[in-house]
């Protein structure tokens, strides 16, 4: 007898238009960098990019996508090249996602 597969955790996140812009730009950069390096862009970034393009401000992320976005955005806003507005909005995205991830982990 096989055990049922665990459900994939998902997080519905509503982003302001400024937050969407920063996430969109970050994902576009991740994808472009991979293409420039003759690599296949990461599936998580492509899927999330498509979800942002199709959405109305609310995006559903898998746990994996949320963690990858937190890592990428944290690196971006912590770098010296990020404009101040990107840091403000990108940091808000990171904080919101980290809160969602932590609340899910405390339930499990």
Radius of gyration: 15 Å
The biggest beta sheet is recorded as: 2 strands, antiparallel
Largest beta sheet: strand ordering: 1-2
Order of SSEs, N→C?
A: EHHEHH
Number of DSSP strand runs: 2
Q: Judging from the principal axes of the Cα atoms, what is the shape?
A: globular
Task: List segments where confidence is low: pLDDT < 50 over at least 5 consecutive residues.
Answer: 1-6
Termini gap: 24 Å
In DSSP terms (H or I, runs of 4 or more residues), the helix count works out at: 4
Helix content percent band: 55-70%
- Structural class, from helix and strand content? mainly alpha
Beta fraction: 5-15%
Walkthrough of the structure:
- It is a single chain.
- The protein starts with 9 loop residues before the first strand and ends with a helix.
- The chain has helices at 17-36, 43-54, 63-78, 84-107; strands spanning 10-14, 58-62.
- The chain is mostly helical and 108 residues long.
- Helix 1 crosses helix 4 (84-107) and helix 3 (63-78) runs antiparallel to helix 4 (84-107).
- The protein is globular and about 40 Å long.
- It contains 4 helices and 2 strands.
- It has a two-stranded antiparallel sheet.
